[in-house]
Write a structure and sequence with these properties.
By secondary structure, the protein is an alpha/beta fold. Helices cover 41% and strands 14% of the residues. The protein is globular. The termini are far apart.
């Protein structure tokens, strides 16, 4: 039977401008077992609480099966929303459950926020570099990106002046163990950021998928907490992907009620609601304090993995290379000497069965440097980390 390889359908202008994620394209190559992949931002399966989740699903279906398998509220399962509100309130920012919306992964939240805020040509502020998945999501709505300067400490709040932020719809920030750099904003920069955004009436989207994965340094207050004290509008995104398992596709948005109300309308037009049975099983898992005993094990695992990679970089990379030393999360950002093109380096690395992500796709609204790359360390065994980094060191020369 002949395969249908083309269509007479006319795509929208938006659809014709879509491009595939650079990371997802690289991951197609890394499916080969011989490839040592530092490319995917995948949590370690060793940290998945499989038995606890299985038991939670069993309990939910055995005791509340009819509810779990029925349609639910767009806002989300009420006990889970209450748990999220209570959990965040412990950090000093009182959150009401009515300010919480459960979503199908925080990637869905990014798409919904793009629909809410961005018109074609709207100015959107992002870090340089920034999370590729957010750039891909926001780009659907044809914004005008404006990159905010960064340095070794991350985003520079002092750069947020009236001209840079003029008519901007929001600033998108990852303050903890940023993807892709692994950097964390210190308290002084966080405070300066929310105070400037309050004065400029600029909403802040705080994306914090990695905040619970700190394994070094001192915890920092969230932008939501600081922002509410300063009078700033902060929209916080959180996820269960990194603390339980990404296959659950479960996240949440915390925002003022008027924003939540609009997001609820957008979600109703998107998928009606997030899977009820998944929400109920996650609540059953976390409600009794499970994360307090589970997360220390995950943090210890990630700390070991990070240490293996930092040691290998020190041993095998040239002296003129530099890299970040994350206090948590999953990523190390490497800067090589001028003149090296990491996109070209990737092709040579793949020929040696090693993969990483070149840095250029993480930039928007600014000319991207060609000599940077992102390494992810949490899913690769120690011996393969050392072997893969040695190969990259040899190729860099």
């Amino acid at each position: 039977m002949d395969m249908l390889t083309s269509t007479t359908a006319v795509f929208s202008q938006r659809a014709t401008q879509l491009t595939s994620s650079a990371i997802r394209e690289i991951l197609k190559i890394t499916e080969r077992p011989e490839v040592i992949s530092f490319a995917g931002g995948l949590p370690s399966p060793a940290g998945f609480p499989i038995e606890e989740l299985r038991a939670a699903f069993d309990r939910v279906l055995a005791t509340q099966g009819a509810t779990a398998l029925q349609y639910g509220r767009t806002e989300g399962y009420t006990p889970l929303r209450e748990w999220v509100a209570q959990d965040l309130s412990r950090d000093g920012a009182p959150v009401d459950p009515e300010e919480v919306l459960i979503v199908s992964g925080s990637q869905q939240a990014l798409d919904m926020l793009g629909k809410l805020f961005i018109d074609p040509g709207s100015r959107v502020l992002v870090e340089a570099p920034s999370y590729l998945g957010a750039l891909q999501s926001f780009s659907m709505f044809e914004p005008q990106y404006q990159s905010v300067p960064t340095d070794a400490g991350g985003l520079i709040p002092e750069s947020l002046d009236a001209e840079l932020t003029r008519e901007a719809r929001f600033i998108y920030v990852l303050p903890n163990f940023q993807n892709p750099t692994g950097l964390t904003l210190d308290r002084a920069r966080r405070q300066a950021l929310v105070e400037r955004c309050a004065a400029l009436r600029l909403p802040v989207i705080e994306d914090d998928p990695y905040g619970e994965l700190r394994y070094a340094g001192e915890p920092q207050p969230g932008l939501l907490e600081l922002g509410r004290a300063a009078g700033a509008t902060v929209i916080r995104l959180g996820t269960f992907s990194k603390v339980l398992a990404p296959g659950m596709r479960l996240g949440y948005v915390v925002a003022p009620r008027d924003i939540i109300a609009k997001l609820v309308q957008i979600k109703q037009a998107t998928d009606l609601h997030t899977a009820t049975v998944t929400q109920m099983a996650v609540y059953e898992t976390v409600r009794s304090g499970f994360l307090q005993t589970h997360l220390p094990k995950v943090r210890a695992l990630y700390q070991r993995q990070c240490g293996y990679m930092l040691d290998a970089l020190q041993r095998h990379f040239p002296a003129d290379a530099s890299w970040t030393r994350p206090q948590g999360g999953m990523f190390i950002w490497v800067t090589l000497r001028e003149g090296i093109d990491t996109t070209e380096l990737l092709q040579r690395a793949i020929a040696r069965n090693v993969a990483f992500v070149p840095g250029a796709p993480f930039y928007a609204g600014v000319r991207a440097p060609t000599n940077t790359l992102r390494l992810s360390f949490v899913t690769v065994p120690e011996d393969r980390i050392r072997a893969g980094i040695q190969v990259l060191g040899e190729l860099i020369g």
